[in-house]
What we know:
Blueprint: E1 12-23, E2 28-37, E3 42-46, H1 51-57, E4 65-66, E5 70-76, H2 79-114, H3 121-140, E6 144-147, E7 152-155
Antiparallel strand pairs: 1-2, 2-3, 3-5, 4-5, 6-7
Amino acid sequence: MQGHSYFYHNQxxxxxxxxxxxxxxxxxxxxxxxxxxxxxxxxxxxxxLSVSEFKSIFKDNPTYDDDFLGAFLFNVHDVEEGKKKFExxxxxxxxxxxxxxxxxxxxxxxxxxxxxxxxxxxxxxxxNKKEQEEKGFEQLxxxxxxSETQNELKAK
Length: 156
């Protein structure tokens, strides 16, 4: 990771460029900001990551995260190189990460569906609530019974 002094505002000119790349996974255009440094190179920043994505993607290679510009991705010699590297980063890092995240969530969903349904905490809570409501109804109206199939009350 670059030192924080690398990112001081006096290290940059006033020039900046916005570039876009199409993210196939999300089926949308994403944007990065390039800031020109005093040495005429360009720093590329990306600000379209959730907190969890940022932590997951940069866990092995910490990076600077600017409150306004987003995550520092890399430094390039010119804007054209920035466009190419940003498109590669979107394809090889971001889209691959989001695809893996989707696979992990799908696996988790399958795992939870393969468990016995009656052991699901949500299912147990709903069943308990339903039983409590039925007991409350029976205590209030001991001689009446509600038929869910016919949607009416009947005497016992």
